[in-house]
């Protein structure tokens, strides 16, 4: 099989290459691969956050083996790969754009991920003007929730909002599973959240189908995704280390592609494709602000009934450059409103909490998160826990989340039963800071394993990995088959991770998963059903399980 390149599929005009536009990619590691390194037409800089004073250093290609940092290679290549090893055919969307590759290093825990990405965004805040960086892409997985919490509850989203306030376009991958609202900071109000479509073999846009990505509404009412780009059958560099590795790849052995290129999938690559498209637009309109570019691509995107389930359009670079965007400063950014409220005194906050305008009350409450909580404000907060507005109830809980021992435990447990998903998510988030209480009432967490909102299910099961309570084992196992049967990929994976954390046991998938294999393929579904069967056998002590975790 032969497959179109990203630029061919999106019909990007040949003269638009992102020339003289600088963009940034944040990822764990980047190899010195010729497709993303400095060449005669552009410069690439590597910024290592592990250094005491991170500074951009020119990246020069080496001879490999390029066997580490493959996700970083793919994200950078999707945005601005030169296509060097494919004779310039399989390039990224902006092959002449200057790259700043911000390397976080290996990250193993949620705490490490948050610290590293906050450090990356802080580096950009301090340096984007000096190096003329116009946009950045993040492909981070979720750390605190799946898009239902207010952005003020997440330090990464706070930094995204601050960077957007300063004029940098922040582009974020929305995530790869249909049951969740989003993965990572895509829910932040001012970032551009990216979903995907599947490139058909004939390369014709009208034949394109929607990618199985995240979708839904955030606490602020933002729909995810906002814009679409190729997320499956995307041809990118794949430096195989042996013929055996290439033969084991799910698609490479069947495709007629240049050596060391293969199809891959994920919104992790759709998002940098969008950033590269934006670089092409800035090449033509260097005076356009981040908000103007965002408005232009959203207003000119291609709508099609095939992907109407995503409520978003496919990027169209040629159409976007012809748009007339709004004035540069046509709206107030969320970050400036938040900072203004954080500077107000106690008296102003108390008055605002009695305001008849829901938006005023919510803004005042969320500005209390991660700050001081005087007794007089605490008393007023408690009185609002049963407010009729779900937004106000949610905001009150978030205001308390930095001081979870100051909210009445009974009230918080009651809020876990609230009719609104956003309120329940806020209550779960706040209770995650009081792990000792789950030992007393594990059934409250167990109930959330079957919550009507799949976002809540996922976050509760993920929290179970850290709590490691034995009473969770059977309820976790009992939901595996249903998740496998209904292709709830994220929740199934979270259940397996939690069970391994509690029991020390994991089962290999049969049939074996192969690199390049779609999570939603029949083979992947069969493998999940096999794992669910093995856990059920182990739980019932059937012959061959040889497991005892009691």
TrEMBL record:
Presence of keyword Disulfide bond: no
Coiled-coil regions listed in the entry: none
Occurrences of domain Peptidase S8/S53 (ranges): 18-301
Pfam entry (one): Peptidase_S8
Keywords of this entry: Hydrolase, Protease, Serine protease
Top-level taxon of the source organism: Bacteria
Active site (UniProt): 27, 71, 268
Family membership noted in the UniProt record: Belongs to the peptidase S8 family.
Name the UniProt record assigns to this protein: Peptidase S8/S53 domain-containing protein
């Amino acid at each position: 099989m032969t497959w179109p390149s990203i630029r061919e599929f999106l019909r990007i005009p040949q003269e638009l290459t992102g020339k003289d536009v600088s963009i940034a990619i944040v990822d764990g590691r980047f190899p010195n691969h010729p497709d993303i390194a400095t060449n005669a037409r552009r410069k690439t800089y590597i910024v290592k956050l592990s250094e005491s004073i991170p500074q951009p250093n020119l990246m020069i290609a080496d001879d490999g083996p390029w066997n580490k940092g493959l996700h970083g290679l793919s994200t950078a290549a999707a945005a601005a790969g030169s296509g060097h090893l494919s004779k310039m055919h399989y390039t990224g969307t902006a092959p002449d754009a200057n790259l700043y590759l911000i390397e976080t290093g290996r990250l193993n825990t949620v705490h490490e991920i948050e610290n590293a990405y906050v450090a990356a965004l802080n580096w950009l805040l301090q340096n984007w003007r000096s190096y003329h960086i116009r946009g950045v892409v993040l492909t981070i997985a979720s750390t605190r929730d799946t898009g239902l919490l207010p952005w003020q509850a997440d330090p990464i989203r706070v930094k995204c909002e601050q960077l957007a306030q300063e004029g940098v376009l922040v582009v974020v991958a929305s995530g790869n599973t249909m049951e969740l609202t989003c993965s990572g900071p895509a829910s932040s109000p001012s970032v551009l959240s990216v979903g995907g479509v599947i490139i058909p073999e004939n390369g014709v846009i009208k034949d394109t189908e929607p990618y199985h990505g995240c979708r839904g509404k955030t606490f602020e009412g933002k729909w995810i995704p906002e814009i679409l780009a190729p997320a499956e059958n995307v041809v990118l560099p794949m430096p195989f280390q042996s013929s055996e590795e290439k033969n084991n790849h799910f698609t490479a052995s069947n495709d007629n592609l240049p050596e060391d290129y293969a199809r891959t999938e994920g919104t992790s690559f759709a998002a940098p494709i969008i950033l590269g498209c934006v670089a092409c637009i800035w090449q033509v309109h260097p005076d356009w602000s981040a908000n103007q570019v965002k408005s232009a691509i959203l207003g000119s995107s291609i709508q099609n009934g095939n992907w109407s389930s995503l409520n978003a359009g496919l990027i169209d670079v040629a159409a976007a450059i012809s748009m007339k965007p709004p004035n540069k400063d046509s709206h107030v950014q969320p970050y400036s409103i938040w900072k203004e409220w954080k500077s107000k005194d106690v008296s102003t906050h108390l008055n605002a909490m009695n305001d008849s305008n829901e938006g005023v009350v919510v803004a005042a409450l969320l500005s209390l998160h991660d700050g001081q909580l005087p007794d007089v404000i605490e008393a007023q907060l408690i009185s609002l826990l049963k407010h009729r507005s779900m937004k106000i109830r949610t905001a009150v809980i978030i205001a308390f989340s930095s001081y979870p021992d100051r909210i009445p435990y009974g009230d918080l447990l009651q809020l876990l039963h609230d009719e609104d998903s956003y309120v329940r998510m806020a209550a779960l988030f706040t209770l995650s800071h009081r792990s000792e209480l789950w030992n007393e009432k594990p059934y409250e967490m167990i109930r959330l394993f079957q919550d009507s909102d799949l976002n809540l299910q996922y976050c509760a099961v993920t929290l179970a990995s850290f709590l490691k309570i034995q009473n969770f084992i059977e309820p976790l196992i009992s939901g595996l088959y249903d998740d496998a049967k209904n292709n709830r990929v994220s929740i199934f994976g979270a259940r397996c991770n939690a069970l391994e954390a509690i029991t020390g046991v994991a089962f290999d998938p049969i049939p074996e998963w192969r690199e390049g294999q779609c999570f939603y393929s029949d083979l992947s579904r069969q493998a999940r059903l096999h794992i669910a069967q093995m856990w059920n056998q182990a739980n019932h002590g059937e012959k061959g399980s040889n497991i005892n975790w009691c």
